[in-house]
Amino acid sequence: MWSEIARNAAEYGPSSPDAVVSRDLSPAALDVLRGVAGTARQGPGGDAGASDDTTRAAAQVIAGDARGRSVTAEHMIIAVKREWSALPEVRDVGRRIEARALLDRLLTHCIDAFYRRR
Fold first, then answer.
1. Is residue 115 scored above 70 in pLDDT?
2. pLDDT tens digits along 60-97
3. Closest Cα partner for 36 from 92, 114, 112, 89?
4. pLDDT exceeding 70 applies to what percent of the chain?
5. CA-based radius of gyration for the chain
6. Which of 23, 44, 55, 107 has a 20 to 30 Å separation from 33 between CA atoms?
7. What is the enclosing helix (H) or strand (E) of 67?
8. 61 close to 87: Cβ distance less than 8 angstroms
9. Count of CB atoms within 10 A of residue 75's CB?
10. Segments forming the whole domain that contains residue 86
11. DSSP string, 3-69
12. Domains identified in the chain, total number
């Protein structure tokens, strides 16, 4: 972990807010996050957002990945929020409320999954 922090500090500089959390989500976790975010694009009258089971399953993948990579829960949350806001699927002005509610549900499940040992 410390070698990654040193690499990040060299790349981003010690004062960068992304110096520690720049690589906290793996490509697989990012794919899962994109899949959940894609459900925020469903049209009016449809169910906006993934089902609770789908969101919970995605959170288990993200949290398990974070634990396996020795990422703290705090950094996982920061990384999810940062990557979420960068996704075009959630930038549509008309869907921001639904996307925010979906992110809130996902984060709640991520925290729960991160601290639950199976």
1. yes
2. 999 999 999 999 999 999 999 999 999 888 877 567 88
3. 89
4. 69
5. 15
6. 44
7. helix 52-68
8. no
9. 18
10. 2-115
11. HHHHHHHHHH-TT-TTTTTTT-S-HHHHHHHHHHHHGGGPPTTS--S--HHHHHHHHHHHHHHHHHT
12. 1
- Type of residue numbered 111: I
Angle at 99 between CA 79 and CA 70, to 5 degrees: 20
**Which residue type sits at 75?**
H
Residue 47 CA to chain centroid, in angstroms?
21
Residue-level pLDDT at 49: 60
Beta-carbon count within 10 A of 110 CB: 25
Q: What is the pLDDT of residue 98?
A: 83
1's enclosing H/E stretch is none
Residue 85: other Cβ atoms inside 10 A: 11
CB 55 within 8 A of CB 102: yes
Classify residue 82 by burial, with Cβ atoms within 10 Å: 0-12, 13-18, 19+: middle
